[in-house]
Amino acid sequence: MKIHDDSMEKMGEIRKAAFDLEDMATSHPDSTIIKQLIQDLEAADEGMMVWMSEYKEPDDESQLESFYAQEKGRIQKVADKIYKTLEDANEYFKN
Fold first, then answer.
1. Residue 9 parent element (H or E)
2. How many angstroms separate the CA atoms of 11 and 14, rounded?
3. In 3D, which of 80, 58, 59 has the Cα closest to residue 69?
4. How many domains does the chain have?
5. Which residues of 14-29 are buried (b: 16+ CB within 10 A; e: fewer)?
6. Is the dihedral of CA 94, 30, 17, 23 positive or negative?
7. pLDDT of residue 4
8. Which residues contact 19 (CB under 8 A, 6 or more apart)?
9. pLDDT for 52-86, tens place per residue?
10. Is residue 21 within 8 Å of residue 41, measured between CB atoms?
11. CB–CB of 14/41 below 8 Å?
12. How far apart are CA 22 and CA 14, in angstroms?
């Protein structure tokens, strides 16, 4: 859950970056790049929402260890996408 909690803290940054990029997209010559960044940010946000909606611990306690191992892999992929898209957006803002 730490991976989830840490990456969940970035959701506000994801939404703000997408909002800021949307303002730029209409008047900037790099609108294609900007639109792709927005799509990537929205996909990262959606990935977190999907993971949370699908997360359900099994009733059988003997399955918990394998469940947690599987979910750790799934949420790590979501977190990686969040961090990568934020890094890409922040890099674009610097230029």
1. none
2. 5
3. 58
4. 1
5. beebbeebeeebeeee
6. positive
7. 95
8. none
9. 999 999 999 999 999 999 999 999 999 999 999 99
10. yes
11. yes
12. 12
